[in-house]
Amino acid sequence: MDGQNGSYRPRTAGERTGSPANGDHGVRDWQKNTWFGPAPVNSNPFDEPEDAPELKAIRSENVNEHIGDFWNSPVQGMQNTGSYRQNTQAGSAVKPVQTKNVVKGKKNSHPLRVLLIIAVFLTAVLLVLRFAVFSVKEILVIGNKSIPAAEVIRVSGIHLGDSIFMLNEKKVEEHITSDYRLKFVYMDREMPGTVILSVAEREPRCWLTYCGIMYVMDKNRMVLYESENPAEYPIDLVEVKGLEVRSNTVVGQYINLGSELQQTIFRELFQEMKVLRCIDKIADADISNTDSILLTTRYGFTVALGDGNNLHAKLRSMLLTQDKLIELGYNSGTINVMNLEQPLFVPD
């Protein structure tokens, strides 16, 4: 080897071995593109004919000075970091124009959060008041006699747990009066959870026989019940005779009469008997002749009232006269009270 013969000498920079004729350019393949010596001055960085000569035609000769359309074009990218203004003169400085990033939706987040918390709190308070405090916990019924309180409550449509503020008195009245046996008087609330229902039962006051059927009525001609059995006729109620029945002989409805005058006399007569508390003293009332109304008392007296005028005074005169006659020992006869100041008595 050359080293062993003493002829080996390291190759210095710039020294080349071989010749281009035999394909030896002075360096081995692994030593290509290795620079020995100082950096070149004013060399074109894109002057690379050996490796990429095709790129030279599309590259700017002024790449180091940042001159040309490529360097003046706006910067585009995935992120918008600002706008730049580039002076077209060589050597001018690049001045970036900074923009402020505006974060939307956070400016009023705190007041909205406060309002949301207040709304949730108020909703919770209202729910507590509605279901825990001001709900119906007790229902009291007054005025009922034969109808159980539980039946009145069922008909009213009020339930335990209902909001006491949401109860509609008009609706409750409609529900109660839908039962023909009941009349609505009033509804009261006692906070926080008690409801009072005042009702009145339709009381049977009189009865009549029509087409062989007995109809029991209240003082307003409402049919409460009917029967075809004579043994069930109520002996403690007033039997009404001579009515011109036209229609509605049905339980739960008002009997219509053919004479408006009869309807007026019927209403006023039983109204005055209730005021004077003498219904239980009258056995029957015959109003077939509206100018000559006749009553029969349970003591056996017949009372001539005349027409339907001054019924209150005539009934009062009848009661006073009958009490006097009973005191004198009479138990029958006719009492004429058409002359209020001088009633007449005709014994049997």
Which keywords apply here?
348 residues; alpha/beta; Rossmann fold; nine-stranded mixed sheet; 7 helices; 16 strands; 22% strand; elongated
Describe the structure.
This protein is 24% helix and 22% strand. With 348 residues, the chain is of the alpha/beta class. Among the domains are: 135-201, membrane protein fhac (Ubiquitin-like (UB roll)); 206-346, Rossmann fold, CATH 3.40.50.10960. Helix 7 links the parallel strand 14 (301-306) and strand 15.
Topology:
Elements: H1 2-5, H2 69-72, E1 83-85, E2 95-97, H3 109-133, E3 138-142, H4 149-156, H5 169-177, E4 182-190, E5 194-201, E6 206-210, E7 213-217, E8 223-227, E9 238-241, E10 245-247, E11 256-257, H6 260-275, E12 282-286, E13 293-297, E14 301-306, H7 311-328, E15 333-336, E16 344-346
Parallel strand pairs: 3-5, 6-9, 9-12, 14-15
Antiparallel strand pairs: 1-2, 4-5, 6-7, 7-8, 10-11, 12-13, 13-14, 15-16
Structure at a glance:
Among the domains are: 135-201, Roll (Ubiquitin-like (UB roll)), CATH 3.10.20.310; 206-346, Rossmann fold.
Total DSSP helices: 7
CATH class of the domain at 206-346: Alpha Beta
**Major β-sheet strand ordering:** 8-7-6-9-12-13-14-15-16
Q: Tell me about the largest β-sheet.
A: 9 strands, mixed
* SSE order: HHEEHEHHEEEEEEEEHEEEHEE
Predict the CATH topology of the domain at 206-346.
Answer: Rossmann fold
